[in-house]
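Reposting from the mailing list since nobody answered there.

I have sequence plus structure tokens for a pair of proteins and want to know whether others read the tokens the same way I do. The first protein:
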Amino acid sequence: MSTTPAGPGRLTILDIARMRADGERIAMLTAYDFPTAQLVDEAGLPAILVGDSLGQVLLGYDTTVRVTMEEMLHHTKAVVRGTRRAMIVGDMPFLSYTTPEDALANAGRFLREAGAQAVKVEGGVPAARIIDTLVKAGIPVMGHIGLTPQAINTLGKVRVQGRSREQARALLHDALAVQEAGAFAVVVELVPEQLAAAITARLRIPTIGIGAGAGCAGQIQVITDVLGLGSFVPRHARPYADLRGTILAAAIAYRADVEAGVFPGDAQSTRMDEAVLDEVLGRATVDRTGTADAVAGGIPLDGDL
């Protein structure tokens, strides 16, 4: 049974908590622009993350580290404008929350300027102080543990986290620290499914998995992976469409039609009254007389300029 309220208004962290309590799976996607956000919202997803993944899948950066606050706010505003029901979570970019003061200032911009309802912060135990500061200031926070893309320069490469006893214990501590700091949910990325399930069972807040198995309370995927827009599909993703193939075929067909002169056709063109056109081009009787009034009273022809 859905927990979506019957009346107007956005879902909140209370609705997400009810979904977790009722055992309802929480489906999330990323979105970065107005038209995509409209569709995801219409599909009924309860929450949308404006992820800093936009740096790679939308802006062409090599990592998420290069994404700026201004870029995040720009895209979050577009997603908010395109939605009515989904709760919007803005992803705090690299170095935007290194101190409690910076975190408050930048998270506040997500809510005040962009219209998001929550922010996401990467990190476990080290991020607990930041999460606590934001929550106490009235800013809902989603945590993020496991693979944290903003730390890619430290991690070295994208790989599963928590396979060893030490790493697994550290991740469990991270999850508990995020919860106790006041986060309303936590993303668990690239973690063995058994460990993710164990973490989920030990938390009161929902876990949102990505590459962490089906034992999490919810799932999140990057929208371009779901739509099949990229040339590479991560193992944890499942394309539900092939928009890359569709768009490529459409662009090739369009080019061919333009080159063949069959686009635009009658259906894509408009016509005007031929008598009016004759007057404009100087083909009317009064123009052919060559009188001064014809030039002075009408549009000059090329020869008159």
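The second protein, same order (residues first, tokens after):
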Amino acid sequence: MTEMKALANQEMVVLAKIGSTYGLIGELKLYVLSESVQELLSYEQWWIKKPNSKHWHELKDEEVYRHGSKLLIKIAGIHSPEEASFYTNAEIAVPRKNLPELSQHEHYWVDMVGLSVENEAGDFFGKVSYILETGANDVLVLKKESSDAPDSECLIPFVAAYILDVDYNKKRILVDWQFDYNS
């Protein structure tokens, strides 16, 4: 494996996840979690964290390319599917300080995961589990665990008409939404 330098005590933002192996020379499928492939590729330096690891390591000399509809990554020093398989489910990230500043009404998805979502009446819809990109608009996917309905999901479009406020200090998203909208 190529020599990698550990990153110490720096907040990272995950922009991609590595999937299963592909091909015979150690390529892996790459799943982009950021807005676009171009955004991911715009960062000069990536960091990787293997599953079950606590440490980020700098990637050096990796290759990313398209093969049909798939996006693949070839990590330097990896030459077989067996070696590559140790990277399945690894995360690719960049230091938060390298991300561009956002305007007032823009948000990084990673910052919204885990926020509670409620309406002005105080109805709790759940916490943001992840954000789904549909093409038309992004959708908050909320999980609410309760004794009545464990693992129930609620979907709320992330558009100005329904999102009243995102407050990171209160760890809350205020929405103009009712329970019966999801039935």
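Reply #1 (J.P.):
I read it the same way you do. Helices lie at 37-41, 81-84, 109-112.
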